[in-house]
# Entry
Amino acid sequence: MRVEAPRLPITRFFFACGHKSECLIGSNGSEIICPDAKTLSLASNSYLVHLQLVELSTNFLYSTPVPPIAVPLSLLAKEITMSVLSSLPAGTFNIDPSHSRIGFSARHAMVTKVRGAFNEFTGSGTVVDGVATLNVDISAASIDTRNADRDGHLQSGDFFDAATFPKITFASTSFKDAGADKVVVEGNLTIKDVTKSISIEFEYTGTATDPYGNARFGFEGASEINRKDFGLVWNAVLETGGVIVSENIKLEFEISAIASVPAIA
# Structure
């Protein structure tokens, strides 16, 4: 029986399907009502969860029905803070290039932005005992700004000199949780044999099992660099003042990573 009296939001549940739902408790304290139609009952100062319960740090994942499991009231009586690193299973995660994007944007002629991406890249990450790593290799010659002449210029010695320096690489040095669903990755970015430390803030966008049984994990992030720090110094002065290409470049990451661990049923 659903209780329509005023309800108190008590916690956030993370389901195996990747959905996030605010579950509510009726004002009489006898029932928790979940928008995904999963019912929790209160008995003997514990919530009886009528679904399989798996605890990963402070996160709860539900799967196939089993007899009720008693969960201490103290665990469900307050908002749970999501820790990205503690929610990821141990194993290797391979970036799927066909469903990921590594791009950038730069201001052009001081008035608008040009966006582009690298079409060829590989990358993988690992999680072992709560410690994560990330390594990415990008083909400099695969730069694509939807203009062949501009792409040719960017591949030339004025910019990436792709013939001499074919690879752009990133190797992480640390992962740090940064609040709900966020993680900050620090690491070394190498362009034209120049290596600089950068910081990328990623948002964890969830997990899902694709039609082929792959467990996919999504991340979106961004960082800003000064291209001159990496030897990309070409520019031209405008008659009206200013320059044709901005020094500051925004790097953009939209990542779908496939885990080598079994998906949650």
Remarks:
- Residues 1-82 have pLDDT under 50 and may be disordered.
- Residues 8-80 form one domain.
- The CA atoms of residues 99 and 146 lie 19 Å apart.
- The two ends are 29 Å apart (CA to CA).
